[in-house]
Records
---
Amino acid sequence: MENTIRPADQRELWGHPVGLYVLFFTEMWERFSYYGMRALFTLFLVAETTSSNAGFGWTNGEALALYGWYTMLVYVSSIPGGWIADRLLGQKKTVMLGGALLCIGHSVLALNSEMTFYLGCFFIILGVGCLKPNISSMVGGLYKAKDERRDLGFYIFYMGINIGGFLAPIICGYVGENINWHYGFGLAAIGMFFGQAVYIWGQKYLKNVGNLITKSSKEGKELLERKLTSIEKDRVKVLLISFLLIILFWAAFEQAGGLMNLYAEQKTNRDFLGLFTIPASIFQSVNSFFIVTLATAVGAFWLKWRKKGKESSSIFKMAVGLIIMALGFGFMSAASLQYESNGSSAMYWLILAYLFHTIGELCASPVSLSYITKLAPLKYASIIMGLYWAATGLGNKVAGLIGQASQSLGEFEIFTGIAIVWSIIGVLVITMLKPLKRLAHGAEDGEKKLTNDETEGFELTEH
């Protein structure tokens, strides 16, 4: 049989649609810009106004309060971003709009004034809201129902997030802390322009994903006019329950950009062999470094675990991830005790905490994204993905409140409390697995490799 050239949007590379890699690099650069800004955010706010590299001179409590509000709004804006995609533009065009807003926001943030700082944050909030939920939904849209490659696709996509998250604090953080804060913010802007360029270039590989479903189309009439079935309603219920786990997870995890970032700068001995002092923002790369190096091992563990017939549902992985991440705060408790005794704490406590946080994140976060694309009714796909990111945003706000509370309650009490309470919650969820899985109505059952007939039109062939 004579081979033919498939349309660009149907081609595959290394067993996945080429569109996955377009979204991979778009998200990698978008996260480079976001995590570059995030690494500098609280450090810039508390930097003295009289120093050679002046900041706003705020207190820790004030900086953590703004950090909580800002990071919450960044993700809560995903709700209107999802609505715009579902009702007005479609996911693909809304991602394009989000990228443009982010280019503006990060560029404005690089200018040196208080007004432009707030204006830049405003545009970033709008941009992330448009881009974040919809690019994640587009990843799921690249795969057919019951395609077992979907979870792996999200792991690959997640690697893009964390390559950007690893490089940004090193590059933007070093320049921002040691040369000029706004030069660091400017490098984040350059990263976003790269991401937008990749997305524009890759449109030919995304023709059949992320398009607006209109009422006039046959698919639109069938989808928008029918009511949710009882099964779909149950699946929405279990998604809403999973969002509570997501709020709790990020409320603890996001201490990284706030309380733990300030702890690294103010209470950690960052001297490296007497040669130089490691900038505090560099520790923001540790999580992403562990993700890049450990993702394959964690993914392989869960695959082997599932093949043995053991419990491997997404909700179980999320609960396990919550427990592992919580246990990481035990190392921060030890760091706090060492600080009380010696006046500083060792860097290895931070690194060990980030190691456990990373393993917990690898268990919980990629599968939660995939889980939503499996359970969410197609009619509300983008809005529900927006709710997921809004839950992440609420977690960020709670993280800011917890960070503020540490200023009066004490860091040892906060770190220890998270380690204990969050672990207990994870265990309780595991005890509730059976009813939660019943509400999912087998959404994760029967995942399989596609047959040759099913992959027809989704492979890259030669002349």
Note: The two ends are 11 Å apart (CA to CA).
---
Amino acid sequence: MRKLDISKLDVLALMRYDACTRCGECTATCPTGGEAQDVELVTPRGKILRLKEFYKSQYGMRAKLMGPKEIPEEQLKELASRAYECTICGQCKTVCPAHLDTIEMWENMREFLVANGLAPLPAHEQIVKSIENYDNPWMQPRTQRSRWSKRIEKEVKIKDATKEKGEVLFFVGCTAAYDPNIRDMAIDTARVLARAGVDFGTLGNEEGCCGSTLLRTGLLESARSLARKNMERFEKASPSVIVTSCAGCYKTIRQDYPKIGKVDARVVHITQFVNELLESGKLKLDERVEGVVTFHDPCHLGRHNKLYDEPRKIIAAIPGLKMVEMERTREEARCCGAGGGVKTAFPELAQKISTLRVEDAERTDADFLATSCPFCYQSLKAAIETKGSKLKMMDIMELVRLSCVP
């Protein structure tokens, strides 16, 4: 019999698990549970009930009176697998009538599984090792992190924030820095900032992974180590503002870093920052961008941080561009399927979810499907190509760049 270490389940988490009313409201909207309605353990409710069952079997009143009940190893491993069959999109939190913070519950459950040697899953091990060895999840050398900027070095002045002080620090993120299919996200962001006359720099090759991937897979201690290193770099650079173009980096630095240490700078997402530049008149959008666009709300930007209006205000400010909404949008937006490690461990499930989101967009008859998250961009673009859809995947900064950079 395995004796479970409950030290990683905090009292608040246990109270939340116990407060679950088993109503099933979350099952209908859960992107993974919705794709596996016949498997209760895939649903949010199913995972909560199973963990409560295990807890009570070893620490409940009956266990105290009669001794802990044996938990078969295969059942523990099944819970671990199902716990990662979740994008941590937060849709269950939105609809929960008991107002449970399910986002924190799922992350805490994964910390508990890691502490008990049941996680992370084998499929995640390569990514974890890559972050530990290379400071990024893509097994790319640290010396190539700033390679993306070479394309625009004659066009845009980007300060080396490790040597020069600047008002704004652009935190590029691993995906935009390394993935050749996403690199334009970083390039377009830099061009837009330069066009607005922003005094900005990057940490170049010294920038480290934000740690989001480790946090979402339950590897809290490893993530804390990364966070502390980045916070030391932030302190040395001493910017007034830290801007991220990755929704995942934004959530991590804004919400998770303050639990570990102090970040003196104001942390904003690029959509917030650009919207402020537009409202202040520092950035002008003059060039017409003809077409119809629909916007996909990234989970880390929307449900996790309530940033819904800023991207839409930016789109509304671009001449020639018409905005149409999908049926499920803002708080009710369907997840792209890429979050929470699902795309790595359960690629077929992730593809099903992303395909459903593309179909949502297709029903609007839009020309462009825009977002502001590299993982959403990757996932949705792949689904568009697989389906042979007429939609064109766009990052919102590409649309802005088309309207303001000659």
Note: The two ends are 68 Å apart (CA to CA).
---
Amino acid sequence: MGEESLRLRKLLEHWIEHNDDHVARFWEAAEEAGKFGLKETSSNIRLAAEKGNEVSKHLRKAINSM
């Protein structure tokens, strides 16, 4: 793997870690909103978390295709 490819791999790994941290916080916030009775808000945050999981999945696929 060349130096540029290695740099790209490290960048992708960083994005995955960063995104996964956000997704974890989204799940927490969705649960918190649900406890406050904010059902629609909770639902929308959960949808964002699910989309965030999809982002990480595609970034992992990008790494695996290198």
Note: The chain is about 90% helix and 0% strand.
---
Amino acid sequence: MPHPRLLPPALLLAALSSSLAGQTLNERFAAMSRNAEERGLAEPFVGITTDGTPTTGLFPVRADGIDTAPIATAATAFLDTLTDVQRAKTTFPVEDDEWRKWMNQHFYLRQGVGFLEMTGGQREAAFALMRATLSAKGLQLTRDIMRLNHTLGELNNDNFTEYGEWLYWLTIMGEPSATEPWGWQLDGHHVIINAFIQGDQMVMTPLFVGSEPVIATTGKYAGTAILQEEQNAGLAFMNGLPEQQRETATLDTAKPGNNNLTEAFHDNVVIDYAGLRADALSAEDRAALLALIQLYVDHQRGDAAKVKMQDVAAHLDETWFAWVGGNGADDAFYYRIHSPVILIEFDHQQPVGIRHLLDSRAPTRQHIHVVVRTPNGNDYGKDLLRQHLADHPHPH
């Protein structure tokens, strides 16, 4: 069997649930959550690397000029709406492993304060924090994913115990500050946002977005659709390459299962560069690749996205594009964009929550997972935090 931290999500779910027969649903979910955390946190954080050792010097403490003051103000305002009990379960030290305790699967028992228990005012304050951190596009995507989780509940005989619009939780790491490191996390089914802030620098990875279904054709939120631009732009980029470069980019034309490598509790995965290196691209295709990457970077507020894209552009020659699956108009596929400073995975996944509605178990365009990572040790802003603590040690 592969190392536990490298188990694909479907195999992880099967492994965790196989010995839990006879327990209540809540007991099973609690045990599965504990097992996932034990496996996922067995190793200290290193980060996504190509050989097990992070490349150093990629993420200096510097003046990025991002206006993070509105984020800190919104976070403080949100915390001020909470009761003492809610605040106690929502706040953690900035160095805490709570950062790494996120999972896409709906069964995962999360920390923090949930939208379901929030008052109307608390929800508005939570959305204000998200609005201050995300772009309008990023906020819209987040809300649409939450709405599509309601749709999934509808498609499962109105099962709003496991699926629903408000089954999402917020945590705050550290104390919102203009100078000291802190951040926040949103965790729930098909959307996980990690936002680390240090002075005028921000890191918004790991970011996980997706849905099943990705297009609602019925129900309360009929017409809601997500990640179609990212899907279509990725396919267009692939098909716009010269034939030889398409062949170089293709790792496998068959796609029988799921391909994402960096989902929950996979913080230390070793992934070598593969596929087509961007220094072989024409000027037009280099611009198209940057535009494709920008679709993902633009989920964060504009000034932060601009800084991130400058780093991406500086490492464009070291960026690789890889493809799995077909490239026809209706094919399911996976693509990966991988450089020293960003890793993006787009994956059409096998059906899970809607498999009872389909004739096939093959990957479907109605189930998409996207992960965005900062390789080489700066997910969760860990490298920035490491440098800060080296100069300003915090008491334990």
Note: The longest strand covers residues 191-198.
